[in-house]
Amino acid sequence: MRKLIIVPIVHTPEDLGSYLPAARKQYVARYGLKHWHQRLGMVEELWKGIQQRVLALPLDFSKTRLYQDGLPECGRELEIVEELAREGSRNHQLLLELVQRGAMLMGTESLPLLMEERERLVKQRVTQKRRAEKEDGLYDELIERRDEYIAQRIAATLQDGETGLLFIGALHRVAGKLPKEIATCNLYTP
Hints:
The chain is of the alpha/beta class. It has helices at residues 20-31, 33-56, 77-86, 90-100, 111-123, 128-135, 141-157; strands spanning 2-9, 64-68, 104-106, 163-169, 182-186.
């Protein structure tokens, strides 16, 4: 049997990399500096909770594969995670801790699809309508293609008797795209 535990995540400011200054400026302009600091505190508390729950799971880490939203299948996965962990990403620090316990880090996403999304973000200003769609939880065709790739990647790499941990953002809908023989559950609803 193959099992996948879906770990819903909130991206930390460090996960934004070079986009952080622009994202901070836009957020502060819209909600104010006080709310920015409150958000940082909430994100930190969320990650403390995620870390506690994940580390409390009764897992044989030698039979655990780690799949990460935004981590391309590229042969440099560990290097990318180590760099983001050094920059302060709680998400990537947790991934490193799990790797140190014996879990296998997997490239999860298609590099061309991630590059397409990056290009879209660079070129496109988000309109009010687009922002409202994201807030309503709707996801566009590019995220759907990313989800298809992630599901195929998990199906191809998660072996019988193994458990996968999928760290994934709220807009994604991967579970419904997985083969039926992969049992899924959410970290918060086992």
